[in-house]
Automatic annotation (TrEMBL):
Identification of the protein by name: Multicopper oxidase family protein
Top-rank taxon: Bacteria
One annotated GO molecular function: oxidoreductase activity
Biased composition (Low complexity): 472-494
InterPro entries named among the record's database cross-references: Cu-oxidase-like_N, Cu-oxidase_C, Cu-oxidase_fam, Cu_oxidase_Cu_BS, Cupredoxin
Sequence ranges assigned to domain Plastocyanin-like in this UniProt record: 245-357, 548-650
Pfam families, A to Z: Cu-oxidase_2, Cu-oxidase_3
Alphabetized UniProt keyword annotations: Copper, Membrane, Metal-binding, Oxidoreductase, Transmembrane, Transmembrane helix
SUPFAM superfamilies: Cupredoxins (SSF49503)
Residue span of region Disordered: 472-510
Transmembrane regions listed in the UniProt entry: 6-29, 36-65, 71-92, 104-130, 136-154, 166-184
Species assigned in the record: Planotetraspora mira
Amino acid sequence: MTTALLMTLDLLAAVLAAATWLGAGVAAASRRPRTALALLAAAVLASLARAGVVGGLAGAGWWFVQEKVTVALPLLLVTGVAATALAAPPLVRAARSQADAGAAGSPAVVVALLGAGYAAAGGLAVTLLMGYPATLSTALVTVAVVAVAMLVTWRIVAGPGRSPRIVIAITLVTGLAGTGLAFFPSPAMDDGLDHTLSHSGMGHLAMAAGSPAKPQGRPVTSLRGPATPAAGGVVRRYTLSAETAAITLSSGRKVDAWTFNGQVPGPPITANVGDLVEVRLRNANIRSGVTLHWHGYDVPAGEDGVPGLTQEAVLPGQEFVYRFLADRQGTFWYHTHEVSDLGVRMGLYGTLVVGPPSAGVDLTLPVHTFAGRTVFGDHDQPLDQRVAPGTPVRLRLINTDNTPHRFTLTGTPYRLVAVDGTDLNGPGELDRMGLRLPAGGRYDLTFVMPAARDVVLNTDDRTPSVRLTRQAAATSTTASATAGTAANATASATEDAKEDTTGWPDLDLTTYGTPATTPITAADTFDRRFTLVLDRGLSLAGGRPMYAYTVNGHAFPSIPTEVVSTGDLVRLTVVNRSRDIHPWHLHGHRVLVLSRDGRAPTGSPLWLDTFDLQPGEVWEVAFRATNPGLWMNHCHNLVHADQGMALHLAYEGVTTPFHGAHGG
Ligand code: C2O
Ligand code: CU
């Protein structure tokens, strides 16, 4: 059974347990002992079922069950046992003889049964509202709330008079202690070192030993790119002006957008290895401000474009010049990082491709949802390209949206040769296979244009997005062959239209390609280890109270900063215990995948900058800290990032002159 399924079953069992305990209490109060007994039996079963499911879930990791094992189940056990002991005998007697019917509705019976219901509901609330990790304070406050609910119930059922002293005592003690503990400061830094002594029994994070030492602090603004290209390289100069504009999509449809130079996507930025990329960003009239972040390109920190951390947002009338060396080939993209959820959605993004370009046809295809439509570049209709059979084709897919897209290619087998700008090792031929591209991620596909069929790239199984049509040959010697293929073309076009790709299996990247040695392995000794548990919960995100997207129970900016030193080997464990997909993205570094759900990749080494965590998944990734700076580490569903799911990775000794509290 998958972890995601167990998480769902756990919720169902929790709801069922709460409903049946409460139902039993209500039936007892209305003096229906038989109904109450039946519901009591169902409640006991549902409670046992929840315990069983939690046992199964524990196998996936402590993160998935911590609050259930420490709070929800003990509370349910104590109240459930008490309710069964107090309520079952009188209910049985009442069911047997009319003379004892009154006993069914006695305050003790009703309050005990309802109390177990409150406890079951309280445990469910802890899972849904607080998540991981439940603290001692959460536990105590939950007990207090359940006890208060029982006291109020007692008042209603028994009328004015003395309430049970034991419940009053529990309410006072747990309520006061829980509220008091809530004011304990939470750690602001996590240095990733093992501080065993400061681990509390309730699963608190390791407390950092205070702020990192800042001897001769190096401001992040001093970590800039070079002024000249490498030997043999040239300077690639671009000017990007951020401005609102009404743009026209290929269908003629007009949409209001936020653009670079009046176009969406912004101007494609290309360079070859060795070149210096110099981009002058001007803000004409984007009132909230703009920056440029080079997604997946590990530029010096001062060029990373995170407002409030590496620079101030560029406001209307202002400008900022970015410079970095093109030191690595591949497919990347750029986007604003100021109110990026809105800014990217409105159009402030473009492509960054470092070549040399491939021979043949080399298409860069950023996919975006724009005004409710799937758009490739500025095409909201299929993009048609004529290609001569035998031509090598490279498609560079870039997902600039917040959610994954599924791509299928009909008409030819192909290879997935690069992921997130890094070539895969020994990528085999793929046929009738879906590719799920995470938000922010890139896939490079290659194939040779076939002679027999046209090739169609479909997005999410509905939209034919790119059609590569065979180009008619010009010479008479091939005319007959051309005629023949033209006849086929009609036939295959019909076939293409009918091809249903929904049932095609998705490629599992962790088993694709061939293994190779890597500079990092799971067996290495890591200098720092961090665990990020992704969830939802009530929290303050950017000062606003909300049902936030949380990391380790906190929302930005109060998620502890991860602290590393230059040269450290760092291991990140990322756990998704929520019901959403989270595309995790670390700035400034590629990470090597060590394992997903405990299994190491068996194919090509996987270096990613954005990896998708499905609900219930646990990923372990690693990197060498060789790019000093202050970096964002966040979910690339930018709605989630905006609502709390973002933190910083800081190199010891690097400082920022800015307020530092911007999540982007
Ligand atoms: Cu493409 Cu911080 O993100
Ligand atoms: Cu997310």
